[in-house]
Design goal:
The protein has 129 residues and is α+β, with helices and mostly antiparallel strands. It folds into 2 domains: 1-33; 34-124. It is 20% helix and 40% strand. It has one helix at 2-27, and strands at residues 41-42, 50-52, 57-59, 62-70, 78-90, 93-103, 109-112, 116-119, 122-124. Strands 1, 2, 3, 4, 5, 6, 7, 8 and 9 form a 9-stranded antiparallel sheet that branches. The longest helix has 26 residues, at 2-27. The N and C termini lie far apart (47 Å).
């Protein structure tokens, strides 16, 4: 019984430490140093997929934008979509994160790790890695 309590206590401490270090690393990000978002840009999925028309607007607790997707192997095919992010006040601006997208025709949907930071009307994206 003592070993189980010990294991649970250590597990809880590890999880708390992991959570605090994740929150700490995000709070130290300098969002104002991120490059300005320029359209079109390559999708986080890579592979030559281009995103265009990305102009997020903050609406209460959400950031939203329509956008288009251009697949590299289809010259004329454009997929029209919309994305909605959670909007979080940070560093004097708004961080749009936890994105959920869907195609306008409703056939496809998913999530995106992409984030944008909006401050004074300027939209920034994380640096390319």
């Amino acid at each position: 019984m003592h070993r189980i309590r010990y294991f649970i206590s250590i597990s809880v401490l590890v999880l708390i430490n992991f959570g605090l270090s994740a929150a700490s690393s995000q709070s130290t990000e300098d969002f104002t140093s991120w490059p300005v978002l320029v359209n079109p840009f390559e999708s986080t999925s890579g592979g030559g997929v281009l995103i265009d028309g990305y102009m997020p607007v903050v609406e209460g607790a959400l950031c939203r934008t329509d956008f288009s997707v251009k697949l590299p192997d289809q010259e004329r095919a454009t997929i029209f979509s919309v994305v909605e992010f959670d909007a979080r006040p940070v560093a004097g601006g708004v961080l749009c994160e936890n994105g959920r997208w869907r195609t306008k025709d409703g056939k496809d949907s998913g999530t995106t790790p992409f984030r944008v930071f909006i401050k004074d009307g300027i939209v920034r994206r994380p640096p390319a890695r």
